[in-house]
Each structure stands twice: as structure tokens, then as C-alpha cells.
Write a structure and sequence with these properties.
This protein is mainly beta and 202 residues long. Helix content is 3%, strand content 40%.
Length: 202
């Protein structure tokens, strides 16, 4: 294999992968290949990407849990600045791990990448002052096709690091904070998603 190390089916969930590129560093800095199709194929990953996205968020921002219904996207995500906790939830109908979640810390230091195939809800929480987040997608974004899942649904039970607060019966961020006092910051739309019991299945 080439410049990547692939840990498949992480958390016991088929399809989720953590990918660690080889980092070549010296006193001047470092170099790494962030994506190499040949290396991916040698690792048994045959997805094709059609769109790259990048976002910047401040501490306490929680984006998600998002998915596209009719045009589902596989995503290869990484952080180029800062520190986030990244989460995927299995929404595949008939999956042995339906409703199960897995999370991983992605930072500019560890340079890990997380591959989330089609059929999952995805979101992340920013734990640093600022985070820049990059991801490759296997399908284009289609406005109006977006769905979502309540980030704090107790039936899923995601353990978001550093988050304190009690479930208010909805996806509202009110009353939730990081341990340093930073309030959680969610979009208005992300505070209206429903729990998994009433969520779209792939």
C-alpha cells in the first residue's frame, strides 16, 4: 500500500473508515498526500468524489446531524485547522447497526480523515477557538433534499465531549454548554430536527 493507513468498520459499523495519511516532516515543516485514488483502491475503497467543500466555525458550533435523502453523499472529512468531534449515525434500513453512532476527534495535529459512506447522518462539534473543516463528497449537493436528525436524541445517546446540559425534549441548544462555559451554537434548522424514531431511513 502507498501513503495511507485505513482502519475499516470502526466502532463495529460496516463502511465507516478512519484514514491516516503518511506525514513526511522535518525541521522545515511537513508534506502529505491528502488523497490518492490508487491508494484508496488498493485499500478496497472505490468511491468517486465529485465535490469538495470547506467550512470555518467557531468554538461551540455544532453542525448536524445532516444527510441528503434522494441523493445521499459519502463524505471524506478532515480538519485543517483546530479541533472537532466528528460523528456518524447509521440510518441504513436493515443494517445490524441501525441507530448506532461512532465519533472521532479530528485535529490539525492528528491529521486523521474519516470516511462516512452513503446512508449515514453526519455532524461535528467544534472544540477549538476556530476550526476549518474540509470534506470530499460522492454526489453533488441538491438544495431541498436535506434531512436531519436531532443531535441530542437520547435514543441514540451520542456522548459529545465537554458538553453539559439536560435534554429538554427537543433538539434545542438552550441550556447546553461546553465545560468552559461556551454555549452551544446551532442553526435554527438544526434545533428543529426530530429523533431517530421519526427520521428518514435509507
Amino acid at each position: 500500500m502507498g501513503q495511507i493507513k485505513v482502519d475499516k468498520n470502526v466502532g463495529g459499523i460496516e463502511g465507516l473508515c478512519i484514514i491516516e495519511p503518511a506525514v513526511h516532516g522535518d525541521a522545515r515543516g511537513y508534506f502529505m498526500e491528502t488523497y490518492n485514488q490508487k491508494d484508496m483502491e488498493e485499500a478496497g475503497l472505490n468511491m468517486q468524489f465529485v465535490q469538495d467543500n470547506q467550512s470555518c466555525s467557531t468554538k461551540g458550533v455544532l453542525r448536524g446531524l445532516h444527510f441528503q435523502k434522494e441523493f445521499p453523499q459519502g463524505k471524506l472529512v478532515r480538519v485543517i485547522k483546530g479541533h472537532v468531534f466528528d460523528v456518524a449515525v447509521d440510518l441504513r434500513s436493515g443494517s445490524d447497526t441501525y441507530g448506532k453512532w461512532f465519533g472521532v476527534e479530528l485535529t490539525e495535529e492528528n491529521k486523521k480523515q474519516f470516511y462516512i459512506p452513503e446512508g449515514f447522518a453526519h455532524g461535528f462539534l467544534v472544540l477549538s477557538d476556530v476550526a476549518e473543516f474540509c470534506y470530499k463528497c460522492t454526489d453533488f449537493y441538491h438544495p431541498g433534499d436535506e434531512g436531519g436528525l436531532a443531535w441530542n436524541d437520547p435514543e441514540i445517546g451520542i456522548t459529545w465531549p465537554q458538553v453539559t446540559g439536560e435534554y429538554p425534549g427537543s433538539a434545542s441548544a438552550g441550556g447546553y454548554r461546553l465545560q468552559d462555559g461556551t454555549g452551544l451554537n446551532l442553526s435554527e434548522k438544526d434545533q428543529k430536527w426530530d429523533g431517530i424514531r421519526n427520521t428518514f431511513k435509507f
